[in-house]
Amino acid sequence: MPKITAACYIFSLLFYGLGYFKMSALNVGQLDAYTYTEYAFQATLFFVLTNFLIIVGTGIYYVKITNHNLKVRTKAYERSNYRRRVNAPKVKPQFSRPMYGIELDRRITS
Predict the structure, then answer these.
(1) Which residues, 6 or more positions from 47, have their beta carbon under 8 angstroms from its beta carbon?
(2) Kindly report the CA angle at 80 between 79 and 85, in degrees rounded to 5?
(3) C-alpha–C-alpha distance, residues 56 and 78, integer Å
């Protein structure tokens, strides 16, 4: 796993925890409207950051894996082109001679 993906996941857990604590602070006691609105906004912001970091980390991981698989397939394709080709004997078709006493032109038209 790339280091940046792990960092995104760790920070997403951190922001999730901060959002959870802000939400729990709303349920603790008496708050005025301004503090309640501020805590709700901060909790929402932390949850949005959590989702953003999870999406970014997963996207980076997907790009890294796809790029790695593409390189592996490209190398395998290049190796397969280096194999020696077999020389097949050349066979000339002999359609001019009659087969079973019937000429080729007559067999095609009937």
Answers:
(1) 15, 16, 19
(2) 120
(3) 33
For the chain, give the secondary structure using H, E and C: CCHHHHHHHHHHHHHHHHHHHHHHHHCCCCCCHHHHHHHHHHHHHHHHHHHHHHHHHHHHHHHHHHHHHHHHHHHHHHHHHCCCCCCCCCCCCCCCCCECCECHHHHHHC
pTM of full prediction above 0.85: no
Per-residue pLDDT tens over the stretch 64-107 = 888 877 776 666 556 655 555 556 666 666 555 555 555 555 55
**Angle at alpha carbon of residue 23, lines to 22 and 27, rounded to 5°:** 115
Return d(Cα 49, Cα 43) in angstroms, integer: 10
pLDDT in tens, 20-66: 999 998 888 788 888 899 999 999 999 999 999 999 999 999 988 88
Which neighbouring-strand residues pair with 39?
none
